[in-house]
Automatic annotation (TrEMBL):
SUPFAM superfamilies: SufE/NifU
Pfam families membership: NifU_N
Name listed for the protein in its UniProt record: SUF system FeS assembly protein, NifU family
UniProt-recorded Gene Ontology molecular function terms: iron ion binding; iron-sulfur cluster binding
Record GO biological process: iron-sulfur cluster assembly
Boundaries of every NIF system FeS cluster assembly NifU N-terminal domain copy: 8-125
InterPro entries, A to Z: NIF_FeS_clus_asmbl_NifU_N
UniProt organism field: Thermoanaerobacterium thermosaccharolyticum (strain ATCC 7956 / DSM 571 / NCIMB 9385 / NCA 3814 / NCTC 13789 / WDCM 00135 / 2032)
Family per similarity comment: Belongs to the NifU family.
The organism's place on the tree of life at top rank: Bacteria
Amino acid sequence: MSDLNQLYSEIIMEHYENSPNRRELENPTIKERGHNPLCGDDITLELKMNGDVIEDASFVGHGCAISQASTSMMCDLIKGKNKKEALKLVEKFIDMIHKKDVDLDELGDAQILQGVSDFPARVKCALLAWKTLEKII
């Protein structure tokens, strides 16, 4: 395994095993379940809004390392963003997964999931949280 793949795996596993975003919010403004019945990934995304701004984001649930890490990374990225900015990030992430040319810098850790696009069976895992966020915004 190359050093780069090793790093990516470490970051994914860190988000999967030790995500500070895996928790229930006290009095979330919005709550939405996202699940993929084919593989068993199941999350509930919780947002605390302050007007148009996502003040806090968290999730509970279970699933594979890709779905859980992707959810954790997304939560990190959208905190402090308004709905429009969050939707732009969703669009960029989806475009990245579908191998479109996008500026990856704004996606932070989530850009390491770019390689998921080479594994069609895992694409839904990576997209679950992002599609759930898109639905509730």
